[in-house]
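Session log. Operator J.P. requested a structure for one protein chain; no other inputs attached. Running the standard single-chain path with token output.
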Amino acid sequence: MRDIETILVLTGAGISAESGLATFRGPDGLWEGHRVEEICTPQALARNPALVQNFYDMRRAALARVVPNAAHHALARLDAEWPGELLIVTQNVDDLHERAGARRMLHMHGELKSALCRECGGRVRWEGTLADGPACPLCGGKGGLRPDIVFFGEMPYQMERIEEALAGADLFVSIGTSGAVYPAAGFVQTARYHGAQTLELNLDPSAGSHFFHESRVGPAGLLVPEWVGDMLGDRVTDAG
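Structure written below.
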């Protein structure tokens, strides 16, 4: 790789799965007899708010039972020690990156520990249930809080910032993603168009592996610390 100063990292479900975080999507693509795509939409929230709120209440509660793994900690170390520009963009709605210590990052699909008010548009940190229709702490509106999650059909957050980062990156790294969900699946092509080197770290080859300059296959908990160590100059060669 040529000299690297600016890094953009994309993380997906694969990095959190190694912490044991359930996705609540069964092998048949159903949750309690419903397709997840049918639950996670604005229309579903309007049609059956109790079902949607319960779905995300369960996911929020599950965060208390998991901890960041070696991949999260390695990226937090990169965040702390990398002297150049760095942005970690995660598709995940959990808080494992933050709990590991990452700061230069954003959640493009929202956060479980945040609530969005449909009345005033404000966002507030939220730890408990939303199923009982609590009032918004910002405007006082009753029952207007929904999970601060990008539902199917909604625009991911901070896309302008992400596009700018893709255009300016020297290196784009994708970790634990399927390569099948857009717009994130197209990030590698955008980064390459602007001249970035591209690297994939994934448990299995993704749907977009052929777009990357290099693809490494294996657990994120092993691959990510190794890559971060290389970037920060940990590797010591044996002269003997």
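Operator note: The chain has a mean pLDDT of 91.
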